[in-house]
Amino acid sequence: MKNISATKLYALAFGIFLGLCLWKFGNPVILDHKIHPPATAADWLTAPWPTHWANWLLLPLAGWGALLVFRDKTPWPQSKWLWRLPLAWLGWQFISATQTVDTDLTHATLGQFAGCVAGYFLGALIFAREQLWRWLLPGLLAVFVFCLVRGVDQRVFEFPQNYQALVESERAGWTNYPPEAVAEMKRDHIIISTNGADVANPVILDKFKKGRVAGTLVYPNALAGIILLLWPAALVFTSGGTKAMKPMIRHAAIALVFFLGGAAFYWSGSKLGWLIGLAAAGMLLLRLDWPKRLKWATVAVVLVGGLSIFALRFHAYFAGGATSAGARLDYDRAAVHTTAAKPIFGTGPGTFQHPYAQIKPPEAEMARLTHNDYLEQFSDSGMAGGLAYGAWILLALTAAVKKLWRSGKTVYFAILTGLLGWFAQGLGEFGLYIPALAWPAFTLLGLLTGLKINEFDKKKPVDSIT
Description:
- Residues 455-466 have low confidence and may be disordered.
- Helix 1 packs antiparallel against helix 18.
- Strand 1 and strand 2 (197-200) form a beta hairpin.
- By secondary structure, this protein is mostly helical.
- It has one domain (4-156, 210-459).
- The protein is built from 19 helices and two strands.
- It is globular, with a radius of gyration of 23 Å.
- The protein has a two-stranded antiparallel sheet with strand order 1-2.
- The longest helix has 39 residues, at 133-171.
- Helices cover 71% and strands 2% of the residues.
- The chain has helices at 4-24, 41-46, 52-72, 81-97, 103-127, 133-171, 179-187, 202-210, 220-241, 247-268, 271-287, 292-313, 315-319, 323-341, 353-359, 373-404, 410-425, 435-450, 455-459, and strands at residues 191-194, 197-200.
């Protein structure tokens, strides 16, 4: 390949950009108007950035990638439907946007969807080449580990300290803080006024008390989503990248990534994520080149143990009526109702909150997104948008599974496992609308789409993660 160094540099730069997305753009794009630009040096480091900034950062990178594709005259590597469907889906989003009920929400969502498709095509046309994943993944996985550290820190240190500080400060009449700090906490709704008195927001207190962690992302289930997506690849990358190190250091690095991912995943408290994680673990075990009885016995132990922990941990949740699951069913019914009412154009990309506000039960909690990426496509952009998106994802994942199930390329199978988990979580979450989640996912999906696995790779046995 000509100028491979330039292509590697591009893969490295794009991986760092995806890492930046995970660090700073972990909120849904429809909340962009609620995110204040950083005002101080501390804000630049610790606070999220407005999500539309991600589009401006992506634009020159996408242009750079397009120049590389045209320079090398890269042909589309797979079925034509795997480029027609994403373009058809994105094109229909713009058509649906002409009938939107909220222009601002739709414009923000169109930028997000364009980023998804751009990442997908860059993955297929550039990053699938010559093991460029070795240059793409380091920047992304480095921030992923940082996100896990943030999650563990929240559980062990930050949340208990914040809970205690708020309780003590409320008792002291907030005299522990200067007036400007109190004003800022009121602005952020950490302090609210009740019956003429300033008190700590019960919602915030409950969050700190429960200790469900989110890392650098908007909320705990989003953290579970990024762990489902990247943890398998992080383990493989750490294992393979530390082979030259001393055994003690290598094993410590692998153990650290395993602990951070497992602890953050557990403390995220994601119920759907836990079940998907068990399925992913079973799939990985079945692929190992172990004796059949040992393999199935191990799968049985993992599933029984995992389901037992699930039952014990979430017993109180189900005994209390599983309110969040019931709420999601309300959202799903509303999405179906809206699709039936507006089957052609929907209500416009990113606008689910408007029809839901009109038809939701009076006692139901308000929702801005459907908590189901697939149904929201139907609700927001009609039958054409929903079918195009669903067909694209199903075809791409099916092609990747056929290509990689027997492949000896362990890192690719780890990426596939993460993608299957993340897209499965889309049945109960809204990761498609978060740059930190969706853009890495679609870039990796494109990478697998563009892979060419030869017959030797397909026949090579797999017995470890190295």
